[in-house]
Specification:
The structure is a single chain. The chain has one domain: Roll (Mannose-Binding Protein A, Chain A), CATH 3.10.100. Helices cover 17% and strands 33% of the residues. The protein contains 2 helices and 8 strands. It has a 4-stranded antiparallel β-sheet. The protein has a 4-stranded antiparallel β-sheet with strand order 5-4-6-7. The protein is globular and about 35 Å long. The two termini are 23 Å apart. The chain binds calcium ion (CA) (2 copies). The site of one calcium ion has 6 residues, from loops.
């Protein structure tokens, strides 16, 4: 799969799903090698569209973390974010500091930054 323009929430984003699983830091490096970044989505509507796009792939990594300050979620640009979470999340189980979409519910879940997962790159003009 290559980059495609996909309707996500109110925007059209140029995105690509990688299914060669990587940990968070390596996923970001892979996106950067394609002049992209891990995607940042936070609203229920954006998340619903993203789930449709990833189809059967689950636990897909996004570009946000609370690694620097626990419970303070920021995007890779350093911007504060308030993601729409699944019920019971984020639960920081075993120190989960990254975020993925999961088909378990309508929102996002926190997950380990060291798990090997599929991930979504977003190409834009930064
Ligand atoms: Ca955490
Ligand atoms: Ca969690």
């Amino acid at each position: 799969m290559d980059y495609k323009n996909v309707s996500i929430g109110n925007s059209t984003l140029c995105i690509k799903l990688h299914v060669n699983n990587l940990i968070f830091n390596d996923a970001m490096t892979m996106c950067e090698s394609e002049k992209a970044k891990l995607i940042v989505v936070t609203t229920k509507e954006q998340i619903a569209d993203l789930k449709t796009f990833v189809g059967p792939y689950d636990w897909v990594l996004l570009g946000m973390s609370d690694e620097a300050v626990e419970t303070h979620w920021v995007s890779w640009t350093g911007e504060d974010v308030s993601p729409y979470w699944n019920s019971g999340e984020p639960n920081n189980m075993n120190n989960e500091d990254c975020i993925c979409v999961s088909h378990l519910g309508p929102g996002l879940v926190d997950t380990s930054c060291y798990g090997y997962l599929p991930f979504l790159c977003h190409k834009s003009f930064w």
